[in-house]
Amino acid sequence: MILRLALAELRNRPGRALFLLGGYALGVAVMVVLLAVGEAMLEQARDKELVGGGDVVVVPSGVSAEMLKSGGVSSLFLGIDHARFIHRQLLESPRARQEHGVVAASPLLDGKQVELFARGRVWKAVGTGEIPSRARAARALPTLLRGEWDDSDADREWAAPTADRLFREIDHFHQPAGAAARDSTWAEWHYFNVVLDERRWVYLTLAVGGRVGTPGQWGGQILMTVREPDGTHRSLTRKLTDREVRFDTASADLRLGERAGVRQENGVYHVTADAGGARVELRVTPAPRRYFPPTDLGGAALVSGYVAPALFARADGTVCLPRCEAVRGAQAYHDHNWGVWRNVSWEWGSASSEEMSLLYGVVRGDSTTTEGLFAYLVDARGVRGVHRPGPIRFTEMQPARSAGRTIQVPRRFHFEDPSTGLRVDVDVSSFHLTDRERARRRYFVQMRGTATVREHGRIVARLPGFFETYVD
User: Fold this and answer.
1) Which one of 342, 367, 401 terminates a domain?
2) Residue 391 structural domain
3) Cα(55)–Cα(46) distance, integer angstroms
């Protein structure tokens, strides 16, 4: 019956019937195409090679992995901050391999704008880069139509640098720019501390500061603080003019006059300094993987950079304080700071043993109002944890005298991150008080003590270390 009606309509109104038939055919064709595209997208979503291969995809914070499948990251040119550190210390660390079964991590540089020069013309292009050995291990190696594709020296250096290359990458001097270049409070320094025995240690700072680049308005300084067995402290200084200072923006190397400076070679820091009749000549050797990468601890209005190449190290050499003595395998620490330090204060601590290192800190300026404490745990197997604790709680204070005044300084304090189960309690065994002679955060307190680290209520380490704070 339906067929007879259709044929009758076609005989009586052939034009209208063909028009309706074409419309239905077009609609069906569109649906077929859409279904085919959807099927293709579903298959692509299941194809790991389209998002770099592997079983886990790491993307920038706040970005969905789905963006990778639609070219979102390529079009927005996003990147992962501290990608090298994450690759070496997290994704391909011994901990990741042993505890999580990670075989390899394949970094992918996608959507990089490049320029190609050929036959006198410049071509705009979008490039993609991978490390062949890592892409192969992650089952994401592209099909080669011709030739070979293997790791270059640059690829190997990126993934597993030598000690010399690693420290040159993370530890180098900076040329202040913009307003910072004209700010007399700009400073940059190497800091070392060396524990000579349970009652003696040395704080050593080799600094550059002022309006760097303007003749006569900047220079260098050596500051050496010696803690004696009886608990007293001696502070020794020597200042140098800009003509006597040489620093390197591609390495940690620093020269302060003819007799003092820092030189990094093959992963070892050679440190020489003299001030007030005292002199040190040391070789500081950082423990593998026990470092914190370069980072900005300040805010938009506060320039404050920090890197700790040696949270745990061994020092060998000679110290003359003024009597000369040999140093063999003494526990040491090294960090490097740079920024503008007008009315700046901080909370900081570093504690280490042979097994583990703890680092925490926050920098505050007049424009910094929020608490931004971080805590970092690392050992020979890589990063153990990165935490964002609440504020430090000073639970017990002790009196100290300064210029006829009694100041309360910490005896015990703690901080914790309930979201990760971290709690750190610090017991202070000795301290050194310095009057900065300013209206706020006047007294700078350097402390020696022990940090007890708990994870989910269980003590995992007791670490001797150094801690700093400011009090009024």
Assistant:
1) 342
2) 345-472
3) 11
Whether residues 354 and 391 fall in one domain: yes
- What are phi and psi for residue 127, nearest 5 degrees? -110, 155
pTM of the model: 0.83
CATH code, domain with 353: 2.40.370.10
Tokens of 210: 């002022």
Residue 400: inside a domain? yes
Report pLDDT digits (tens) over 338-358. 999 888 899 999 999 999 999
DSSP category for residue 180: G
Q: Measured at the alpha carbon of residue 229, what is the angle toward residues 223 and 232, in degrees to the nearest 5?
A: 55
Overall residue count recorded for the chain in this entry: 472
DSSP 8-class letter at 141: P
Judged by phi (left if over 0) then psi (alpha if -120 to 50, else beta), residue 30 lies in: alpha
CA distance 3 to 369: 81
C-alpha–C-alpha distance, residues 223 and 53, integer Å: 52
pLDDT at site 123: 84
Beta-sheet strands, E only, within 287-355: 292-296, 304-320, 324-340, 345-352
